[in-house]
Design a protein that fits this description.
The protein is an alpha/beta fold. It folds into two domains: 61 residues, no CATH class; 333 residues, Alpha-Beta Barrel (TIM Barrel). The chain has eleven helices and 15 strands. It has an eight-stranded parallel barrel, surrounded by four helices. A four-stranded antiparallel sheet has the order 11-2-13-14, with no helix packed on it. α5 crosses α6. It is globular and about 75 Å long. 37% of the residues are buried.
Length: 420
């Protein structure tokens, strides 16, 4: 079994009162409130429910208001029982379908709902050739860059403090040679080159919010992506994390291949984020398919055999990824099969709202094996307790009150001040 001992904290926590006196032989309750590792999923399903109805003519994620509330509430409870990080959609075509008319208010309401519940919010993405707005094609070529820069500044500035984590630019390796549809972002990349496109995205976003953490994200995990990262670092671009997409519609890659992938990209000394992970619970996509978008079927159901396979593979995948010290987060791409990417049965919850075995298996791992249960302790003669649990946030309570504190990985000595 992969070793994840480096994810755990062995902390001696000293409790003192407001006068600095140790709370000796005091009854203490310890509860974990959050893990330090980013366990994420997408929150696309919740934008209509939390943010309000979409603009006129845009499709809704829910059939009726009544069903919206009941389904969304149940799905949100399932979400919060597993995940501490959410990715929200900022695809430019949908975010600003008409120039100057943005979806800011709905996305802000959705983001704030998550942050109010202690969930870290990530925006995805600031720059991407796919789903660029059609109106951008009508902008004069010498003005396109200024418009894209303005889009970056606007979103990063307006969401600062609510969203401070962004996929700054998406799928750059293919960007200058993308031919599936004409778009102004690819045209700009053909003139500027990949590195300057990355520099534009990162520099504008960092200038708009110096506290923001920015991710370079790609599905092309070949040597071409490694070369791009090298070139960007050589150019002095401040990349805060490297994003690796691992959609596995054609089958689980296996522990060895996943580990080798993480080893290859860890050589840059940057945190790694597994930004888009999927495992299907139905028939696998044929192996000869190169572009996953080319696989179009009328129906792609979840099956009992596929669900058992998905449950086994998701636990193996999480164990492997979390065991690698370079990885800081893993985002699964879909809580439910409703509206799943490519229609694949890759969610953890079925279309009818019932949980798949993969949900239960992941819950047992994340909120069971890797979660510190509520524990009742007593401080020793020096006013301290020892806590061994997955690194993260903990609430420590006595009869006089409670406080939250961070317990870092490894051995640590922590002091907390509590009321008498």
């Amino acid at each position: 079994m992969p070793d994840i001992s480096h994810r755990f904290s062995e902390a001696r926590v000293a409790l003192v009162d407001t006068a600095g006196e140790p709370l000796r032989n005091a009854a203490v309750t310890v509860q974990q409130t959050r893990q330090a590792f980013g366990f994420g999923n997408i929150g696309f399903d919740f934008v209509d429910w939390l943010g309000g109805p979409p603009p006129a003519g845009a499709p809704s994620a829910w059939e009726t208001p009544h069903e919206s509330a009941s389904r969304a509430e149940a799905l949100a409870a399932d979400y919060l029982n597993l995940f501490n990080t959410v990715t929200l959609p900022f695809y430019w075509r949908g975010f600003e379908p008409v120039r100057g008319h943005t979806d800011t208010a709905r996305l802000r309401r959705t983001a704030e709902w998550f942050t109010d519940r202690g969930v870290t919010v990530k925006g995805h993405p600031l720059v991407w050739h796919t789903l660029a707005p059609p109106w951008l094609l009508d902008v004069a070529e010498d003005e396109v860059e200024a418009v894209i820069r303005g889009r970056i500044r606007r979103e990063v500035t307006e969401f600062a403090g609510v969203i401070d984590l962004w996929d700054a630019i998406n799928e750059v390796v293919i960007l200058p040679v993308f031919t599936a549809e004409d778009n102004a972002v690819t045209r700009l990349a053909q003139r500027k080159g990949r590195v300057k496109m990355v520099a534009m995205a990162f520099e504008e976003a960092h200038a708009a919010n110096p506290r923001a953490r920015l991710v370079l994200n790609d599905f092309d995990l070949s040597a071409d992506y490694e070369h791009l990262i090298e070139e960007c670092l050589d150019a002095g671009i401040q990349i805060d994390a490297v994003g690796l997409q691992t959609h596995m519609h054609q089958g689980y890659r296996g522990e060895e291949q996943v580990w080798q992938l993480l080893e290859r990209f860890s050589r840059f000394g940057l945190p790694l984020q597994l930004t888009e992970t999927t495992l299907v619970s139905g028939d696998l996509m044929p192996p000869e398919i190169v572009d996953l978008n080319d696989h179009v079927v009328d129906s792609w159901p979840s099956t009992p055999e596929g669900e058992a396979r998905q449950a086994d593979e998701i636990v193996r995948h999480y164990r492997t990824v979390v065991s690698h010290p370079a990885v800081e987060s893993l985002t699964y791409w879909g809580i439910t099969d409703r509206g799943a990417w490519l229609g694949a049965p890759c969610g953890l919850v079925r279309v009818d709202g019932t949980r798949k075995p993969a949900y239960d298996a992941l819950h047992e791992l994340l909120r069971g094996e890797w979660w510190y249960p509520e524990t009742h302790l007593e401080t020793d003669g020096a006013g301290a307790v020892t806590i061994h649990g997955f690194a993260g946030s903990y609430r420590i309570s006595t009869a006089g009150g409670s406080i939250e504190t961070e317990l870092p990985p490894g051995q640590a000595a922590v002091q907390v001040v509590l009321p008498c």
